[in-house]
Design goal:
The complex is a heterodimer of chains A (241) and B (441). Chain A has 241 residues and is an alpha+beta fold. Chain A has seven helices and ten strands. In chain B, the strands form nine sheets. Chain B has a five-stranded mixed sheet with strand order 16-20-19-18-17, with no helix packed on it. In chain B, strands 5-4-3-33 form a four-stranded antiparallel sheet, with no helix packed on it. A four-stranded antiparallel sheet of chain B has the order 6-7-8-9, with no helix packed on it. In chain B, a hairpin with a 7-residue loop joins β21 and β22. The chains are: A alpha+beta (241), B mainly beta (441).
């Protein structure tokens, strides 16, 4: 019950993070808003439910999907980095977003989930040390290092929580091979109207060997489920030592 | 003055402009649109093209399995016609096909040779291109034979097998591949000897057929058919072989989808085939039909949160073995279309009360009948005839067709019909819809 309430509260929190209401249906149709006349009403964030019991870490396996691609990125200071170096042998949760997204069920939701995970690591030293969160923008024209520095910044930055890298790239050209490698398609409209990018919401779980171990779509983007997967990988790592 | 052609164009463009939506994941509204993975964009308006994965026939045309494209655009000068065809070379027992989660590629399989053909359907949806052939499925998967159904997951494809390389029975597995065509993992169906943690209602035969997911409940449903030794054999001979006839699936299973672990194996005689999961946000159930006992079965979550299964209706007269095959559930969960092969009938069941389906309409579509696909709005249905090359009827009963209908809630009315034999194409099987609007920015 408490878990259900927490999940609903998380969904409602998204509305706050999202800022503008989810009117960007056409700007972000991939996130599930229906533009079809006469279609059933869309499912608002407050209605979104995940109705299954929490998973027990270590009781299941996460097969290797493929190597996590590398690439050149910029951190919030504008310093050029390599993705693989930033992964630094940790378990990584990587989310692709753009900061002007106005769809509460899209990028803001992914960021809200990462916030939830970030908070959880503050009370778990192992998670704090072994997990890294990464948010990478696919809108380098707008999402400069300075913009990314402000995006989704934790409200309590002094917490002993896991590292959270907010990243961007120098250009669409630099970004393209990263998106292609992760299978993250992004469609850019002809106009320069904000909030006009279209993409499939995906979050990636990457192990310390830089291999993708899970890919989450909207339906499984749940902090408890993600944490169970993270802990499963950490148990796996411990078992290898 | 607006000409007739312009009025058609305007109406068509308006319909398309209103209707095309790239739905996100989840059981939202929001088409065979109703039978596909919830992780995939949906065509909620009008489909432009129907892709028909077709078995080649010796001596007919090029004799090859092929992906046929039919124009279904109202007002198009080629409406109701075959506008493109791409042959893959050889006969592989073309069976089922489905899209990747980005709907840019269509994966289609041959259940005889176990080859998988990947078509690019996004560059030019009117002219799909074969871009990849996976011929290492059996080896990579550890002996799974007959890749049958494809189910899109984020970045991956879930592929249900039908058989195995060791004994050609229905013992099989589910296999995962990346969208790029790389093998990931194999999950063998539970058996009595290797239950893998599943609760077994009566027996676990390890057979497989279809796999569908209800993400909200973290469950996957699988069903069971028969192995390559049976499905590639002449049906008449097969039915005279009592031992072979025992080797049909008797089970359906519910799995913890995220962990890919089976939870429960139901006893479901015999040969439950297609699974269709309800769409409603509180509808925790799925339908299947048993081919050899002609029943609709309901798999549902009970009041205690446990999954159960029960037979809820007969299909036709089971004593006559109509052989129900494909089913299709409307997007509002109200109508379940059930096709039966032997009598060529389609039956519409009102499943508003899923525990008490009632036939509200039926029509004979042809002398034999297999697949049914419906648009998301339920107003258009498409039917094809072929089941398996060695099971299709002979002589004059061997009609091979694609027939398209409108459905107004009362009557099916034919829009167009294509004779795949006369067109020298082959035996039409699964259908999937395409639209250029899916790939515009």
């Amino acid at each position: 019950m408490r878990t259900q309430i927490a999940r609903i509260l998380l969904a409602m929190m998204v509305a706050t993070l999202a800022g503008a209401p989810g009117s960007g249906a056409w700007a972000h149709p991939e996130h599930g808003s229906s533009g079809a006349a006469g279609a059933a009403t869309t499912q608002t964030p407050a209605e979104r439910r995940i109705e299954f019991a929490a998973l027990v870490p270590g009781t299941y396996e996460l097969p290797v999907i493929k190597p996590a691609p590398d690439g050149n990125v910029l951190d919030t200071t504008g310093t050029s980095r390599r993705l693989h170096r930033l992964m630094a042998g940790k378990v990584v949760v990587l989310s692709f977003v753009y900061t002007q997204c106005s769809d509460a069920r899209g990028c803001p939701l992914a960021t809200a989930v990462l916030h939830q995970i970030h908070r959880a690591t503050a009370s778990d030293p192992v998670l704090a040390e072994r997990l890294k969160l990464m948010t990478l923008s696919f809108d380098p024209a707008h999402d400069t290092p300075a913009v990314m520095a402000r995006y989704g910044r934790p409200s309590e930055p002094a917490m002993r929580a896991s590292e959270w890298d907010r990243l961007t790239t120098t250009s669409e050209r630099a970004l393209a091979p990263i998106l292609a490698g992760y299978g993250q398609l992004v469609a850019r409209p002809a106009s320069t109207q904000a909030g006009g990018l279209t993409h499939r919401l995906r979050v990636y779980l990457i192990d310390p060997q830089r291999r993708i171990r899970n890919i989450y779509g909207l339906d499984f983007l749940d902090p408890e489920l993600l944490l169970a997967d993270v802990r499963t990988l950490l148990l796996e790592e411990r078992g290898r030592r | 003055m607006t000409t007739t052609r312009n009025r058609h164009f305007i109406r068509y463009a308006a319909t398309l402009a209103m209707a095309i939506v790239l739905a996100a994941t989840g059981r939202l509204a929001r088409a065979d649109e109703t039978c596909q993975s919830p992780y995939m964009p949906k065509i909620t308006g009008e489909e432009e093209f129907v892709y028909v994965w077709t078995l080649g026939v010796v001596g007919l045309g090029d004799g090859s399995d092929k992906l046929v494209t039919v124009d279904s655009r109202r007002g198009s000068p080629t409406f109701g016609q075959v506008i493109h065809s791409v042959s893959v070379g050889g006969r592989h027992e073309a069976h089922h096909a489905d899209f990747t989660d980005d709907r840019r590629f269509l994966w289609a399989s041959g259940i005889d040779t176990s080859q998988i053909f990947v078509f690019d359907v996004h560059t030019d949806p009117a002219k799909p291109r074969l871009v990849k052939t996976i011929d290492s499925f059996v080896q990579a998967s550890g002996g799974v034979v007959g890749p049958h159904g494809f189910y899109a997951l984020p970045g991956r494809m879930l592929i249900g097998g039908l058989s195995n390389a060791q004994d050609q029975t229905g013992r099989t597995a589910i296999v995962e591949y990346t969208n790029e065509g790389q093998y990931i993992a194999t999950y063998w169906m539970p058996t009595d000897a290797a239950q893998n943690g599943a609760a077994i209602e009566k027996m676990a035969d390890g057979y497989g057929y279809d796999a569908r997911v209800l993400p909200r409940k973290n469950v996957m449903f699988t069903t069971s058919f028969t192995g390559r030794a049976n499905y590639m054999r002449n049906l008449g001979e097969l039915m005279q072989d009592p031992d072979a006839m025992k080797r049909f699936g008797q089970t359906a299973a519910v799995w913890n989808f995220h962990t890919r672990q089976p939870k429960k194996v139901f006893h479901m005689p015999a040969a439950p085939l297609e699974v269709r999961v309800a769409w409603g946000p509180t509808h925790n159930y799925a339908f299947t039909s048993t081919a050899l006992t002609s029943q609709i079965w309901l798999i549902y979550e009970d009041g205690q949160g446990e999954w159960q299964a029960k037979a809820v209706a007969d299909i036709g007269d089971p004593k006559k073995i109509p052989l129900p095959v494909d089913i299709s559930l409307s997007a509002d969960d109200r109508i379940l279309w059930v096709d039966s092969f032997m009598d060529g009938m389609t039956r519409a069941f009102d499943v508003s009360d899923p525990f008490h389906p009632k036939v509200i309409y039926q029509k004979q579509i042809g002398r034999q009948l297999n697949m049914v696909s419906q648009s998301w709005d339920g107003k258009r249905l498409y039917f094809t005839s072929s089941l398996l090359a060695n099971w299709d009827k002979g002589g004059v009963d061997n009609e091979q067709f694609l027939k398209a209908f409108t459905w107004d809630g009362q009557e099916l009315r034919e829009r167009f019909a294509l004779d795949f034999t006369a067109l020298k194409l082959g035996r039409p099987h699964v259908m999937r819809f395409g639209s250029r609007e899916l790939y515009r920015n």
